[in-house]
Amino acid sequence: MKRVVITGMGAITPIGNNVSTFWEALVAGRSGISVIDTIDVTALKTKIAGLVRNFDPEAVVGRKEARRMDRFCHLAIGAAAEALSESGLLADDSADRTRIGVYIGSGVGGLQTLLDNYKTLLERGPGRVSPSLVPMMIANMAAAQVSILNGLKGPVLAPVTACASGNNAIGEAFKLIQRGGADAVVAGGAEATITDLALAGFINSGAMSTWDGEPEKASRPFDKGRSGFVAAEGAGILVLESLEHALRRGAPILAELIGYGASSDAYHMVATDPEGDGAYRAMKEALDDAGIGPEHIDTINAHATGTDIGDVSETKAIKRLFGERAYEIPISAGKSVTGHMLGAAGGVEAVALVKTIQEGVIPPTINLHEPDPECDLDYVPNIARKVPVTTGLSNSFGFGGHNAVLVLRKFDEE
Q1: Phi-psi bin for 50: left (phi > 0), alpha (psi -120 to 50), beta?
Q2: CA 242/CA 231 separation, integer angstroms
Q3: Can you tell me which residues form the catalytic site (predicted)?
């Protein structure tokens, strides 16, 4: 099995439109949650979200092409461009593009495009619906557009596993490269669902926060006062390569991906298993896949959305896997800062874990002032912590009971 390394990263998020800006804000604990001003939220109980600001898709793909894509594609293409630039993968014509794949997941796809065209259907009739509706709307199109724009002719896949989509995309790309099916894969997730329809649905499901105080204080994983997740949009993309391919071309090696685990709760359409059984099994499988034990994990990037059951069940799963050592492991909940980017969360949080390994700094879980008594682990409250990190775990769990976990390690050529 080939070793797989990360040679490039890209991020478009509510706290920054490139990796360096995103990381600086994440470590500083500067929230990206604000009042929604992109749509009319007068009738909604939720009026806040994590919005990507000052991102110009036309600067990335041009005006004509941008108009033929949904926003989730814009975000994916922007993040992929940064990741590819850093990796230098396409810097010359020697790259065999038939051996480079694209695995980018999305939980929902082009929801805004669907809503816009449904309004057109009702107001102006079927003859005015865009012929580009379906190819703009379908959830595989972020992966497809990154492939088309960059001439990448290897396998292309778009996992749709709700909030686990980004981690599943990265994990499946990892396995593809391991078994020799590709030399490199552009992998991650993208999401843009800040629409009145999606927000209304999430609110009525009981999963979304209806916090009416300062927006920056709304996302409160593990805190006793948490009231649900805060929606966000964004994209996080990695360039994965086989080690031999990366070394052959002198690529920058940022970290190594060494394990991947996936499971299903088989429990409920929306609610997580309250005992965290599926999360436990995915984490254990990821460690087994990496060939390491729980004692080797230095930090955990928690899924930690801020829902009542979700945060408790993840805590239980961590305790079950790590035993007493669970209390010694610093755990970070990045969604406290960014909000929940749904299908993009895994990709963005993988970027955060790579930076954590590189910098030896664990981002804080902000807004954690009165921990839930059932959430009694070390969640690095409110202030970043400088700690040497060699190996970390990143969790993503989604509606439907999907669980996907990655294990990343500092690169050592030996």
Answers
A1: beta
A2: 35
A3: 163
Residue tagged active-site, from 163, 170, 321, 362: 163
Query: Has this prediction a pTM greater than 0.70?
Result: yes
Which three-class secondary structure state does DSSP give residue 285? helix
Tokens representing residue 305 in the block: 């959305």
Domains of the chain with bracketed CATH: 4-255 (3.40.47.10), 260-409 (3.40.47.10)
Residues 340-380: tens digit of each pLDDT: 999 999 999 999 999 999 999 999 999 999 999 999 999 99
Which amino acid would we find at residue 74? H
Helix (H) or strand (E) holding 310: helix 308-322
Alpha carbons within 13 angstroms on the beta-carbon side of residue 222 total 27
Helix (H) or strand (E) segment spanning residue 292: none
Sorted by sequence, the CB contacts under 8 Å of residue 397 that are 6+ apart come out as: 163, 164, 272, 278, 279, 303, 310, 314, 403, 404
Active site residue 73: no
